[in-house]
Design a protein that fits this description.
The chain is of the alpha/beta class and 818 residues long. Helices cover 23% and strands 25% of the residues. It is built from 20 helices and 38 strands. The longest helix is centred in the first third of the chain and has 21 residues. The protein is globular, with a radius of gyration of 29 Å. The chain starts with a helix and ends with a strand. This is Subtilisin-like protease SBT2.4. Its main location: secreted.
């Protein structure tokens, strides 16, 4: 070889080596062949008694798990280059697969390897972010029948995959007087010890606590000061959801010296199993799926997911992402799975809960509000929000009113940006003589629009400079915004409507003297901030939250609709008091607080998890679909004033009548769900038939991903036996089949009534029927187009029993021309 050729060879080798080295690694989720997962492994030594939990610690199943893990290692070693990958987890309990951190080039090699069924890039996950037991009628209803709050949820374990838990919180305290057993032998929980999480954290209320961080660590984005490698919750989100589902009863809510009543979980005697998989800096699907795998192995009864993908998968149908497949097999293992519908509302096709085997939860408010007020010197009063004390005592003393930018130091050494001038983020920007003992108006501007400014910094500025109080006002240039009630360390009020701000500014300008350069030289305006910590209970409720994700449900990233209702159910998720973490690294204004008043479908989801625990306690043999059906058919679509539930929409502070695409079946009624009369049941085989009936779906792909062939399919996806009817393109007429089961203890006769969707006639056959206990009845629903529409219309079928059971079936139809 000549010198020139040798040089070129070395150059090319080094160039290619550098290219490979610089290729950024990603996390990939992989499903493989090579045997069933442990939960579904069968031989003559494994017992599969109905209703009995799997003994994952048996020698046979442990050996099978080891075999699967070894096969994953062998596949990687034989396919990928040495040193080019790092296996993060082996998934083996409900799905046979693993996650790997490697380059896209290596992932392409893996995708082509024999035995690899499915590979998906990890696109991350997000968090979907007292009084509610009373709002849902639990103390007078379910708790009474279960033996009171000291027994509600007894014997049920709720698993929560989230940001961890604050084990020192009284909502999770061990109570020797109420007899929490320290060792619940039926639940093989493990307590991972680590920073802020001593071994004593698993105390009988918390029966297991694990953390999963391999995916987060692989990204290199963890911050050691906040991303704590233990089950401890440095965010607050996980503690909030856990206490909402199963927090102890009657825990005093005290925040910054103010008392806000007593908090309780929906099922206060249920036990909590914690699976931390989300960190302040990052959340990966690989960690979440590993947490779900462990929860299912441990044998939780309920799996609550207030976290998850925030967008549909790119290259597969929505219901065949790894996340949804894991939920499917959790359901197959007998676990009730509840999932946040997402916070991408109010637009249509925004739900991130797609599958019939997981209950997707929408969010609403309750009738409790925390109103505050701003009173001007001329007597004008403006309503606002702010959990703070008043700027005056018993009288109506009013203080000097100052606009922030009128108090800025003229020659100060700081940037002239909105954060300094308008948003009150920096004390050094203001003349302390002007703002001391004043009510200062701080405006919404760029910093709040992009998330860099905080209400906490306004309060800190006010405290440092001696504000009497502050007004955080909507900026007419930006328009109205949605305000949440946060506790302020000084008197403060949020005015979220731009029209109110304009009237306040009109008063201010009339009362402010300016020189010929427009500089304020005297402030004659006066204002006072009212008490904001006292709750009122007279608001129309529930109202579906604006941010709550909506249907119709869809099958792919192009938003092609599917004949399945989502969301499934509605629960309180707006302004929910529950446990928090004093670190509060994502919400600085709650730093040091043990409770947070937080909103989102994240908060709605554990309400349903807790209600499911109460139902499971009463009916331990019920399948997950029976529990879901009981909640759906007994939900209400009317508010506390007997009027149809309303929903917030795109236009702020205006309401429209809610539909099943907003509220699902309606607001959950825990008491009625205990005794639904009839239920609709579906199992794994039904879900396979459903998947195989979806138009334009490849049966081979379904077999590859699920591991089962399309041996049977429905005539239409709408034939899946769920407690709703959804048809996304009704031409002429269509027959939909349902089967109901009588779970009451008596013979009952049912008749039906129908509220037809606009443009559709409904016929039910048989028009009436008598059904014995544990008996089943086939139903045929015929839908006939009478007028075509450009959009979905909604109605319902109501089955009324002779023993006063009422079964509601929502209908959503888009009637089109032939």
């Amino acid at each position: 070889m000549t010198v020139s050729l040798r040089f070129r060879f070395v150059f090319l080798f080094l160039f290619c080596t550098i290219c490979v080295a610089e290729e950024e690694r990603k996390i990939y989720l992989v499903m493989v062949e090579g045997g069933p997962p442990v939960a579904f492994f069968e031989d003559n030594t494994v017992s599969r008694k109905p209703g009995k939990k799997i003994d994952f610690d048996s020698e046979v199943l442990k050996a099978h798990a080891k075999h699967l893990e070894d096969s994953h290692d062998q596949l990687l070693q034989s396919t990928l280059d040495e040193g080019a990958y790092n296996k993060l987890y082996s998934y083996k309990h409900i799905v046979n697969g693993f996650s790997v951190h490697t380059t896209p080039t290596q992932a392409k090699k893996l995708k082509k390897a024999p035995g690899v069924k499915f590979i998906e890039k990890d696109r991350g996950v997000k968090m979907m972010t007292t009084y509610t037991p009373n709002f849902l009628g639990l103390p007078q209803g379910v708790w009474t029948t279960e033996g009171g709050d000291s027994n509600a949820g007894e014997g049920i374990v709720i698993g929560l995959v989230d940001t961890g838990i604050n084990p020192f919180h009284p909502s999770f305290a061990y109570d020797p007087w109420n007899g929490y057993p320290r060792n619940r032998t039926q639940f093989p929980g493990v307590c991972d010890v680590g920073p802020h999480f001593p071994k004593s954290s698993c105390n009988g209320k918390i029966v297991s606590a694990r953390f999963f961080a391999a995916g987060a660590q692989a990204t290199g984005k963890l911050n050691a000061s906040i991303d704590i490698l233990s089950p401890y919750d440095s965010v607050g989100h996980g503690s909030h959801t856990a206490s909402t589902a199963a927090g102890n009863h009657g825990v005093p809510v005290v925040v910054k010296g103010s008392y806000y009543g007593k908090a309780s979980g929906m099922a206060p005697r249920a036990r909590i199993a914690v699976y931390k998989a989300i960190y302040p800096s990052i959340g990966t699907r690989t960690d979440v799926i590993a947490a779900m795998d462990q929860a299912i192995k441990d044998g939780v009864d309920i799996l609550s997911l207030s976290i998850g993908p925030d967008e549909p998968p790119e290259k597969t149908i929505t219901m065949l992402s790894m996340f949804d497949i894991f939920m499917l097999f959790a359901h197959k293992a007998g676990i009730f799975v509840v999932q946040a519908a997402g916070n991408r509302g109010p637009g249509p096709y925004s739900t991130v809960s797609y599958s019939p085997w997981a209950v997707g939860v929408a969010s609403c408010d309750t009738d409790r509000t925390y109103p505050s007020s701003l009173v001007l010197g001329n007597g004008q009063r403006f309503n606002g929000i702010g959990l703070s004390g008043p700027s005056f005592g018993a009288g109506l003393l009013k203080y000097k009113l100052v606009l922030a930018k009128d108090a800025v130091v003229a020659n100060g050494n700081f940037p002239r940006t909105p954060q300094y001038i308008d948003e009150c983020q920096h004390p050094e920007a203001f003349d302390p003589v002007i703002v001391r003992q004043s009510v200062v108006i701080c405006m919404f501007s760029t910093g709040f629009s992009n998330g860099t400014s905080t209400l906490k910094d306004i309060a800190n500025t006010g405290r440092a400079l001696g504000f009497i109080g502050f007004v955080f006002a909507a900026n007419p240039s930006y328009g109205d915004f949605i305000a949440e009630p946060y506790p302020f360390s000084i008197p403060g009020i949020v005015i979220p409507k731009a029209n109110d701000t304009q009237m306040i500014m009109d008063y201010y300008e009339k009362k402010t003297e300016r020189n010929n350069k427009g500089v304020a030289i005297a402030y004659h305006g006066r204002a006072a901030i009212g008490e904001g910590r006292f709750a009122k209970y007279n608001t129309k409720a529930p109202i579906v939250s604006r941010s709550s994700s909506r249907g119709p449900n869809f099958i792919d990233i192009k938003r092609n609709p599917i004949d399945l209702l989502k969301p499934d159910i509605l629960a309180p998720g707006h302004s929910i008091w529950a446990a928090w973490s004093p670190m509060s690294v994502k919400t600085p204004i709650l730093e040091g607080c043990n409770f947070g008043l937080i909103s989102g479908t994240s908060m709605a989801t554990p309400h349903i998890a807790g209600v499911a625990a109460l139902i499971k306690q009463r009916h331990p043999s019920w399948s997950p679909s029976m529990i879901a059906s009981a909640m759906a058919t007994t939900a209400t679509t009317y508010d506390n004033r007997g009027e149809p539930i309303m929903a917030q929409g795109r236009e702020l502070y205006k309401l429209h009548r809610s539909t099943p695409f907003d509220h699902g079946a309606g607001l959950v009624s825990a008491t009625n769900a205990l005794d639904p009369g009839l239920v609709f049941t579906s199992g794994f085989d039904d879900y396979m038939s459903f998947l195989c009936s979806i138009p334009n779906t490849d049966p081979d792909f379904i077999k590859t991903t699920i591991g089962e062939p399309c041996s049977h399919s429905f005539r239409s996806p709408s034939d899946l036996n769920v407690p709703s009817v959804t048809i996304s393109s009704l031409k002429g007429s269509q027959l939909v089949r349902r089967i109901v089961k009588n779970v009451a203890n008596a013979v009952e006769t049912y008749v039906y009534a129908v509220v037809p969707p606009h443009g559709v006639a409904i016929e039910l056959n048989p028009p009436w029927f008598t059904i014995v206990p544990q008996g089943t009845q086939d139903l045929e629903v015929k839908l006939i187009v009478t007028q075509t529409n450009d959009s979905f219309s909604h109605g319902e079928i109501i089955l009324t029993g002779s023993l006063k059971h009422i079964v509601r079936i929502p209908i959503s139809v888009l009637p089109i021309s032939m």
